[in-house]
Amino acid sequence: PTLVLVVAGVTLLTLFYALEERVRHPLVDFRLYRDRSIRTDIFVLFCARFCILPITVFFVFYLQHILILSPFASGLSLLPIILLFAVTATFAGYMFDHVGVRPLSISGTAVAALGLVWLGVFLGHRDYVILIPGMVLFGFGAGASLVPSYTDVMNRFQEKNRGQAAGVLQTVNQ
Asked: Where are the alpha helices (DSSP H) in 23-58?
């Protein structure tokens, strides 16, 4: 059933694209996404959000059912990710004005990936303390890559098209 749903989804997206190219006032004007930088930013955001879901949902299950932490303790255990994300995202917004999106996006994505690899390697040890470096790396990297990518996408669109850009970005978040 999963493969059938994937094929159905791809088919519907293809049909949507074909219809949107033909109408006079499309819901999503795909011509706006021909810029490689915009597509790259959206891809980075999609990948980051794709990785955040397992951290916020499945990692909490791991903390509660494997490490036997209470729901409150599990929430507190995510603080290394949340705090580093918040601090780094704020700093990355400032740095974006000075170095642009590319260095922040590349380095942030690489650091977040290292954090995920760390978590993947050490989950089997069933020890929270050994997971903290991976959580720190992931929080730091995700914060460093998300904010500049969002800002870059919005800045690349003309003001009249920013509502559409925001809508697409929110769709990517879901």
From this structure: 36-53
